[in-house]
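During the no-cost extension, the postdoctoral fellow (Dr. R.K.) reprocessed legacy sequence entries with the updated structure-token encoder. One reprocessed record is reproduced below for audit purposes.
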Amino acid sequence: QVQLVESGGGLVQAGGSLRLSCAASGSIFRLSAMAWYRQPPGKQRELVARIISDGRTNYADSVKGRFTISRDNGKNTVYLQMNSLKPEDTGVYYCNQVTAWGTDYWGQGTQVTVSS
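Re-encoded structure tokens follow.
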């Protein structure tokens, strides 16, 4: 059973930065695709960024050039560096792991609030 634990959320002013971390349990991390999703208030959950096992990444258009996803396989951890934050980045951010055989895991979420 995989457990994902997010940290690093909080309140920040527009233009500021935050770094989210997601620590995963288990030995399958390095073979998994990892992603960050967010759910803005009153809206559906949306993909923010994904990094697959070979390190390739993709981003939502709204965060390109501002957010960077990375992974440390030695620490079973995925990061989301968020710069130039905007109020529309506000939401609950969720870590997601999809294993090589397609099993899906989610973290409990961490709140990010960007004030204008």
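The two ends are 40 Å apart (CA to CA). The mean pLDDT is 96. The remaining legacy entries will be reprocessed before the final report is submitted.
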